Amino acid sequence: MQLFHTSPETEITPSTLGRFDEFLFFSPTIYVMTAGDYHVFVTSLNDSEIIEAGSLWYQDNWEAARPFIDELMGRLSVDEDTAMGLLDGSLSVYDMDIEPEDMADEDWNVQRLTARSAKALGFIGVAVEDEQGAAYMLDVTRIKMEAAK
Predict the structure, then answer these.
(1) What ranges do the domains of the chain cover?
(2) Separation CA 64–CA 45 (nearest Å)
(3) Angle formed by the axes of helices 80-88 and 103-120, to 10°?
(4) Alpha-carbon distance 142 to 90, whole Å?
(5) Residue 39 forms beta bridges with which residues?
(6) How many CB atoms lie within 10 A of CB 4?
(7) What does the alpha-carbon distance between residue 14 and residue 57 come to, in Å, rounded to a whole number?
C-alpha cells in the first residue's frame, strides 16, 4: 500500500513532529491541508503492518494497550468501555459532555492514544477516520519516507 503525507516542511525530522509525537497522518491519495507551499512524501507498507482502529481489541495481546486505556479513563473521567470505544472509533468525544472549546484537543488526544495503542500491539500504524475521511497514523520512526516525484 502506498501512502502520502503533505507538509510545508521540506524534510521530516524529529524536530518537525508535533502534537502526535512520532506519528504523522497519511492518506492513500495526495491531500493538502496548508494554504502555502507544500511537499509530498510517500511511503509503502504491507497491509499487515497497519491495524484498523476498530480491530484493536480483537488482538490476542490487546492488553498491551492498557496504559492508553487507563490514561484516557483518567483524562476524561470515563469507564473502560467508553475509553476503549473512543480509542477504536466506535465512540466520539463530540458525543460526550465535554466543553466545546476542549473537544478538538480531546479528539486529537484520542487519535494520539489510538496510534500509541496500535504501536503497543506491534503495528507501524493505525487506520482511523477523521474529518478528511480515511486516514493512517504511521510511526515515522519505523518507516522509510521519500519525497514524491
Answers:
(1) 2-147
(2) 23
(3) 90
(4) 27
(5) 7
(6) 18
(7) 30
Task: Kindly state the DSSP code that residue 27 receives in the 8-state scheme.
Answer: B
Distance CA 103, CA 95 (A): 10
pLDDT digit string, tens, across residues 99-133: 989 999 999 999 999 999 999 999 999 999 877 78
Cα-based angle 69, 70, 71 (whole degrees, multiple of 5)? 90
Task: For residue 57, give every residue at least 6 positions away whose Cβ sits within 8 Å of its Cβ, in sequence order, or none.
Answer: 84, 88
With 0.85 as the threshold, say if the pTM is over it: yes
Residues 117, 7: contact at Cβ < 8 Å?
no
Q: Which residue spans within the chain are E strands per DSSP?
A: 2-7, 23-26, 39-44, 50-52, 125-130, 133-139, 146-147
Q: Can you tell me the distance from the alpha carbon of 21 to that of 38, in angstroms, rounded to the nearest whole number? A: 21
Q: What does the pLDDT look like over 50-108, one tens digit per residue? A: 999 999 999 999 999 999 999 999 999 999 999 999 999 999 999 999 998 999 999 99
The single residue listed with the C-alpha cell 489510538 is 114
Task: Output the CA torsion sign for 25, 30, 33, 39.
Answer: positive
Cα distance between residue 65 and residue 67, in whole Å? 6
